Amino acid sequence: MSDAGEGLVDAEARLSERMFERELERRASAARRLAPAEVERNRQIESLRLARAEMERQQALTNHTGRRAQIEAALAEIDRRVAAVSHPTAA
Prior knowledge:
The chain is mainly alpha-helical. It has two domains: 1-33; 36-91. It is built from three helices and no strands. α2 (36-61) packs antiparallel against α3. It is elongated.
């Protein structure tokens, strides 16, 4: 009886692995369909998102008013750039 149970577990693991592989293939296929300009735009937005997260982390850690002002200016600039990249015709 345990052999049958192991077979089911193995089959379930293979099925789960195959479903994961298919999802990766689907995402890769969708990424290939994007225009190069769209891929670059997505890369820029992701980079700005990460920069904003780092600035927010630094802002939470600092108490110096001068540094806080610098960080607020940096956050405003990042937001401006995100808007420009997200809506190029509005810039």
